[in-house]
Amino acid sequence: MVFGCESIMNDFRSSADSGKLGHSYLFFGDKGVGKRMFAASLANFLETGDFRFGDKNKTLIDSRFFIPDEKGIISIDVAREIKKFLSERPFVSSKKTAIIDDSHCLTSEAQSSLLKVVEEPPAHALIVFIAGSAEVLFPPLLSRLSKIYFPRMPSPELEKILTEQFGIHKKTAHNAAIRSFGRIGEALRVLQVENADDPDRQNKTENLTQWIENEILRLRTENLRGSSGRILRLIRKETECGRFNLNPSLQKKAIADIISK
User: Fold this and answer.
1) Range of the domain at 91
2) Residue 24 lies in a domain
3) Which residues form a coiled coil (predicted)?
4) Are residue 114 and residue 191 in the same domain, yes or no?
5) Are residues 192 and 104 part of one domain?
6) Is the pTM of this model over 0.85?
7) What is the mean pLDDT of residues 63-89?
């Protein structure tokens, strides 16, 4: 799925439909803003006509991702493999698409080799470089690429996407949007890690918040002497539960101490 870069999607759709899609691009921007997913969605669009690409196990016939090896480099041998792949005619897509992830890992020899492909690409070839910054590629190669910047999105916009598209609870989505600084990939990673730590953490936190609210209501209703200070402390604790990823079990013990004082 493409989130936060609909204008970029519309530009590529228009270019493809009008036959004006370029042969070589650099997708750059901060880690986790959606560059890799957009590249996969673009390949899916060229092959199926649909920009939605939500199945990680889906295999595209005319597209390939190329990533660094165990040494953290993309070698001249991989560059040759990319050239061979792009020389083949596509089966179902209008383009044979090579996506080079973490292109800052390309060796100087690999970049020189790919420069020749970028300068004289096969008519059906599309090559996409993905990087955090445009400066990671050497100037001769960089100067021949169409550069597409992927920005971070405003936190309220990211929060809305997390709640409406992924079904995340509003407070949890708000926290993830703030902690990820507007990067949807990072927000989803944060949520995945939290769920792996405790699959029921979200429900527990929501239940804890409700429990605090019930205790505040009880203290107000009973109007016990000295309850105002306890209510203020409970309100602060409720705010903390909404802002931070607190352990519900430990917090409940702490709140019990507040109520008993």
Assistant:
1) 6-149
2) yes
3) none
4) no
5) no
6) no
7) 94
